[in-house]
Amino acid sequence: MFDLEAIREQFPALHQKVYNKPLVYFDNAATTHKPLAIIERISHYYRCENSNIHRGVHYLSQQATEAFEEARRFAASMINAVKAHEIIFTKGATEAINLAAHSFGRMRMKPGSSILVTAMEHHSNLVPWQQLCLEYNGKLLVTPMDELGQIDLQAYTQLLDQQPVIVAITHTSNALGTINPVKTMIRMAHDRNIPVLVDGAQAIAHTEIDVQDLDCDFFAFSAHKAYGPMGAGLLYGKEKWLEAMPPYQFGGEMVDSVSFDKTTFNVLPFKFEAGTPNVEAVLGMETALRFIRNTGYEAIATHEKELLDYATAQLSQIPGIRFFGQAPEKASVISFLIGDVHPFDLGTLLDKMGIAVRTGHHCAQTVMDFFNIPGTVRASFAVYNTTHEIDTFVAAVKKAALMLS
Ligand code: PMP
Question: Which of 53, 196, 194 is nearest to 118 (CA)?
């Protein structure tokens, strides 16, 4: 049973006023709020378990190490990875993608090689690959999209024929909400022996991920967009790739033996986890993933679809509104503009009415260039949002648009 009130009760940050107005938080694609269980998990770690992991003989260190490794096992089970050591903890999706680009990318790139991305990538899944291409005098190939924000699969097929060393695609676009047909795209790439990295930053809070079913080679996400803390995320990689890849960063923990002449490296996953990790955030991430599992992806998706449909229908009635991202397969993200009103001005007025939205290019400048706009106003919904909040939001948008036009 999906009990919205009970869910909202778990999120203390939702129950506050800003500028003396009840907060309406629609900036969930940037980061979600955190349930009490996560806040308490982190607090418990510092009150009772705080200790450096993996290198202590003492009780607390062993407890913390066990909790950290349990978090890895749980993350693996959450996305159905075959082995726990296929999970590399990072500080977020950005670091996970950089790890793959630096390590796997450098292992595969040769002068003139190419890498294939899509036209709707977040800068985090674009710039690392672009820079790698620059380093190797290679070519960044870009799968185009149409006006609705859908990938052009025919163009994708042709670009695959250029044999890029890797395909890097977003599962769900943060700027447009498009949910890409990643399983099909992975199969098409694999038919040509091309590995695929999926940027799952906008997926993990909304839809069940099964890396074996997708058959992706890499999958990246951050905890903080999925009710977890900032400073934790992960890179899933198939064992065969992670085994073959060179370390990404060097230092403590990732080594086996060190002399002045030579260093040998630790086994997976530690080979890729140099230095002291963000232990409390990883433990918080585990609690967040458990929150999602307990709530249930089906219930989350049903509720968020209802919010998306309701908000889209309400906003559609506003004269001069333009939506960016109208793919049939769409997450609970609405990017829009009204007439000539600048998104920043609209966002600022909404803020004064207690409504948190994001304005600007959403770290996807190439998407904004495609539509020839400076940015959009983006409202993104999470499991705890309500249709009542949407009513407040739509009324506020109407009022602000009148004031600004
Ligand atoms: N990819 C996508 C699609 C995103 O939306 C984001 C965050 N906006 C990222 C990657 C990067 O995530 P982080 O900043 O948490 O590393």
Answer: 196
